[in-house]
Please model this.
Amino acid sequence: MIVHGLLKDIERLTRVRVNEPLSRHTTFGIGGPADIYVVAESEESLCEMVRLAHQHGVPVFILGAGSNILVGDGGIRGMVIENNVASIQGPEPDGDDRYIARVGSGTSFASVSRRLSLAGWAGVEWAVGIPGTIGGAVIYNAGAYNRCTADVLISARTVDGDGRVRELAAADLKLAYRSSIFNRGQLPGHVVLSADLSLTKGDPKALADQIAKFDAHRLMAQPRGQNCGSIFKNPEGQSAWSLVDRVGLRGHRIGNAQISQIHTNFILNLGRASAADVMALIRLAQERAWSEFNVKLETEVSLVGEGFSER
Ligand SMILES: Cc1cc2nc3c(=O)[nH]c(=O)nc-3n(C[C@H](O)[C@H](O)[C@H](O)COP(=O)(O)OP(=O)(O)OC[C@H]3O[C@@H](n4cnc5c(N)ncnc54)[C@H](O)[C@@H]3O)c2cc1C
Model:
């Protein structure tokens, strides 16, 4: 779906790529082509791109760091906007001992966490290994080490296809385990522009030590290579990795995708894996967990675009 009117308008704003392979833009290294691919470097251009697509009736997919998506081999119809809107304002005092930092939605959560923590700001040190953007973290309520985005999020600014900017309090986003009103489809067409995070003053040395511990833990517990982090959500009271392990799938390979030997809730692209290879592993794990333990394994990774066969 290439709408020439949109192409003409968008080309006035930025460089446009047509039929861009999304395997180049996801941490999995997997995904078919986007009809139209553009990069937003400022909040103004992000808003304008969203508005133009809406005006031309072209669907928009916002791509953060591509670290929690499996894009189908058929790719994504419409326009993919890579969100590179990176900024940090503050932290500014906000009464008592609380401070607020406003972070642009395309900023890397890992780098914001490291930068703020090493400067002595406490609150987001647990996010030092989360490779996605702040926008993605709001969508999924990203978390680690028993902490999550909801613990520090005060509010998020969004824009819709008509260019309306809104500020939504964190409570209105109904953040839950790896979900929010955004990925539950309750606020369609809204793009996160920025997030206000609550911080306190901390001890830079203690925060640096904490970060070093988190880094060391990830190095030890998680595999290298192309992946999208956890494939499955942990079912209530259970660990997804343990279920996948107990159904005998550690190291199991289909095509060029493999369940990691190191962490069985990770699937690795061994090189040129297709989304179909990954889906076959996901379905196999789901079927076995259901037949052997009566447990439904729900994906944490989002399946987006075309090429996933119905079953
Ligand atoms: C090695 C590795 C380790 C990981 N560890 C963790 C972890 O410890 N904890 C954790 O929670 N996650 C983890 N993840 C998963 C991932 O980093 C998070 O889910 C992250 O929040 C996704 O952000 P993203 O920018 O990559 O989103 P993307 O994958 O680019 O997008 C995901 C979805 O969010 C939507 N989206 C993104 N930005 C916006 C926006 N600004 N407005 C509207 N919609 C938007 C997209 O349209 C898409 O539907 C890990 C991933 C990897 C690869």
Q: What stands out?
A: The mean pLDDT is 96. The first strand starts at residue 17 and ends at 21. DSSP finds seven helices and 17 strands in the chain.
